[in-house]
UniProtKB/TrEMBL annotation:
This is 3-hydroxybutyryl-CoA dehydrogenase. The keyword Zinc-finger does not apply. Residues 191-287 form the 3-hydroxyacyl-CoA dehydrogenase C-terminal domain. Belongs to the 3-hydroxyacyl-CoA dehydrogenase family. GO terms for molecular function: NAD+ binding; oxidoreductase activity, acting on the CH-OH group of donors, NAD or NADP as acceptor. It comes from the Bacteria. Residues 8-186 form the 3-hydroxyacyl-CoA dehydrogenase NAD binding domain. One of its GO terms (biological process) is fatty acid metabolic process. Pathway: Lipid metabolism; butanoate metabolism. It comes from Desulfosporosinus meridiei (strain ATCC BAA-275 / DSM 13257 / KCTC 12902 / NCIMB 13706 / S10). Keywords: NAD, Oxidoreductase. The record marks H144 as: Important for catalytic activity.
Amino acid sequence: MRIEDVKKICVIGAGNMGHQIALSAALAGFKVSCTDISLQMLEKAEEFARTYLPERVSKGKLTQQMADQGLSNISFTQSLEEAAGDADFVIEAAVEMINVKRKLFADLDRITPPQAILATNSSFIVSSKIADATKRPDKVCNMHFFNPALVMKLVEVVQGPHTSTETAQLTMDLCEKMGKNGVLLKKEIYGFLVNRILAALHHEAQFLADMGIATPEEIDVAVTNALGHPMGPFRLLDFTGIDLAYYIGMERYQETQDLKDKPSPLIVEKFAKGEWGRKTKKGFYAYE
Ligand code: CAA
């Protein structure tokens, strides 16, 4: 399959990442079906598209025609069969739990046309942990976007040992079509490039806060003012979701049994309190 043959993209998950990946693809001219088990998430994603696009038009960032086209290209459904049944390319952006992803990929293998590419937007999990749930491992790879996906340019494409060169190339071509800078990794590594670097920063920031050396606010001020990051590590955690940080840490700890992979006491406390960041209106900071 060539990029010209990719007409319909299915995005699985309408959460933090999925709703913006879906809209990016729709704006790039693809027919997109976004699916989620939660009707509420789908309604929120549709509402986002309906408010975001006119805002872009009034800001002069999109023409009315581009916005109309984007909106007409995207649809939302709770039915995986309907979303993926005629998809040429699937981007899975479901919850960061390996068993959920493996089950989804097994279902996708049954539902999608045999030539369809199945990519995971997992933040850390390499696709070889998932590919063997399908009978088409050569068509499985990582395609990892960053939050907010409509804004962030980088996409990490990871070619696992099972991934064909055609699949990796087509995924890179898709990045280009979506106006993204794809970076192709030919060796799998947990967390890829960016999240490994980010994890090292977050690990140290949480250690300093847990030790009482500085508060999360003070650490954020230090990082934004000294390193020029747009957000400090704690504001970024609120943005990407403390629940996500907790699940990723627990999943990794279960696998490695290495204490340094366990979510820090601060993350465990915030997770238990239901203070997951922006999505719950409270995390390290409070939101309207
Ligand atoms: N969704 C879509 N667009 C958004 C947005 C959102 N949530 N927030 C801001 N934007 C857009 C705005 O529309 C604006 O676009 P234009 O300039 O084209 O008009 C632009 O971003 C700048 O917005 P603002 O001026 O309102 O705010 P800002 O300058 O503070 O930028 C930000 C907001 C882009 C989020 C910026 O703070 C930033 O880059 N933060 C760091 C984000 C980051 O590190 N992301 C990676 C996270 S790690 C990750 O994603 C890993 C993973 O696996 C999940």
